[in-house]
Design brief:
The chain has 448 residues and is an alpha/beta fold. Among the domains are: 135 residues, Rossmann fold; 166 residues, NAD(P)-binding Rossmann-like Domain (Rossmann fold). Helix content is 49%, strand content 15%. The chain is built from 17 helices and 13 strands. The chain has a 5-stranded mixed sheet with strand order 1-2-4-3-5, sandwiched between helices. A 5-stranded parallel sheet has the order 7-6-11-12-13, with helices on both faces. The chain is globular, with a radius of gyration of 21 Å.
């Protein structure tokens, strides 16, 4: 057993056996960067793996707030400040009943390398709460956001930690939280949160960035085979922000998107989700907070698959999992390969299980891991931070061009790193190595 395996067993699996998502993320990373860390004794001497695995700081706090009927609710709040070697901690806040420390640690860990890959000066963090926004009134959501920020404000700042949105946290929630921060801190620190509304500090294209960036990355993967989205059939999971704009950009590039989903089920539309149908979905999900089943009720020819994911439903060339972690398992991967899928690009964070990833790679499916393929969101958050610092706004075209260039550069860095260490075309290896080398170099140069 090498010293690398010893770290994985003793410093991760033995210490946190119940944190399955975190173990999964670290296992993928360690196996990918093994050629790098075993090639130079400095990594063992500096104990870089042990240092990068352990968060610099983890904050857990109580969030107490009041329902409309006067009842008092108590939820958990978290902020995992993972690594600050490249800049202030940066990463989203998630409001969802599934939120536990293991999930936030895996997200914060993935964020290290995702943020590193962008080339921007951002460290890594992640946070959130087990608060469930579904079924809550506007006033209840506002009161929760204010209560959450009343506890969180001590640990953040534009040069310390810059949270953003994630599942359950959009521009509305960001607005409530930054309003509360200003009242408590007596400070107009517009850069303390990203994902703000355009007009008072938000960046154009931020809403679209993760979905667009995912498609840009997939387009680069396809280009290595002299191919493109044009004429391709695409399966997408999710129906939130990332899925909506991945659908929009893929359609603009000539593809036919035939699926979307939510936690209750999936819709399959063989005719394709065009601009009119996507506008219906945006209204349904962003305004009415409805269920994806209503799409099948409205558009004839479409089918609703209750309680099912879309992966085995129909033949498709490209799959973009944009919902949540571990949504694409081995059976799903086998169905995709059987149905002719040539490319999978992760729009969500770690949506593919390890065995499914291995199966896709073994069957020569181009596979873009989330730390690379969905880095467009945090990249544009970084661009929002830059605009806030300058007290300036770039045009939509300027931001989209910068985003596109960042995704092209991420793809190139992944390709080059994979080839350098003997795994040409393996984006899992390339993304982990490219992200790790930048952040580990900074850690070593800054001392322990």
């Amino acid at each position: 057993m090498s010293w690398v395996d010893d770290i994985l067993d003793k410093h991760v699996k033995a210490k946190w056996p119940w944190q399955t998502e975190f173990i999964q993320a670290v296992t993928e990373f360690v196996n990918a960067v093994r050629p790098v860390v075993e090639s130079d004794t400095v990594y063992q001497k500096e104990r870089i793996l042990e240092r990068i695995i352990v968060p610099e700081r983890t904050v857990v706090f109580r969030v107490t707030w009041q329902r409309d009927n006067g009842d008092i609710e108590v939820d958990y709040g978290y902020r995992v400040q993972m690594n600050s070697a490249l800049g202030p901690y940066k990463g989203g806040c998630r409001f969802h009943p599934s939120v536990v420390l293991s999930i936030l640690k895996f997200l914060a860990f993935e964020q290290i390398f995702k943020n590193s890959l962008t080339g921007l000066p951002m460290g890594a963090g992640k946070g959130g709460s087990n608060f469930d926004p579904k079924g809550k009134s506007e006033d209840e959501i506002r009161r929760f956001c204010q209560a959450f920020m009343t506890e969180l404000y001590r640990y953040i700042g534009s040069d310390v930690d810059v949270p953003a949105g994630d599942i359950g946290v959009g521009a509305r929630e960001i607005g409530y939280m930054i309003g509360q921060y200003k009242k408590i801190a007596n400070l107009h620190d517009g850069g303390v949160l990203t994902g703000k509304t355009v007009g008072w500090g938000g960046s154009l294209v931020r809403t679209e960035a993760t979905g667009y960036g995912n498609v840009y990355f997939a387009q680069e993967m396809l280009s290595t085979k002299s191919d493109s989205f044009d004429g391709k059939t695409v399966l997408i999971s999710g129906s939130g922000n990332v899925a909506q704009y991945a659908c929009e950009k893929a359609t603009q590039l000539g593809a036919k998107v035939i699926s979307l989903s939510d936690s209750a089920g999936s819709i399959i539309d063989p005719a394709g989700i065009d601009e009119e149908k996507l506008a219906f979905i945006k209204e349904l999900k962003n305004v009415k907070r409805g269920r994806i089943k209503e799409y099948a009720d409205k558009f004839s020819g479409s089918t609703y698959l209750e309680g099912k994911r879309p992966w085995g439903a129909d033949k498709a060339d490209i799959a973009l999992p944009c919902a949540t972690q571990n949504e694409l398992n081995l059976d799903d991967a086998m169905a995709l390969v059987k149905n002719g899928c040539m490319c999978v690009s992760e729009g969500a964070n770690m949506p593919t299980t390890l065995d499914a990833t291995d199966y896709l790679l073994a069957n020569k499916v181009m596979f873009g891991p989330g730390k690379a393929a969905n880095a467009g969101g945090v990249a544009t958050s970084g661009l929002e931070m830059s605009q806030n610092s300058m007290r300036y706004f770039w045009t939509r075209e300027e931001v989209d061009t910068k985003l596109h260039n960042i995704m092209v550069n991420i793809h190139k860095n992944c390709m080059d790193s994979a080839a350098e260490f003997g795994s040409p075309g393996n984006y899992v290896v390339g993304a982990n190595i490219a992200g790790f080398r930048r952040v580990s170099k900074a850690m070593i140069q800054q001392g322990f």
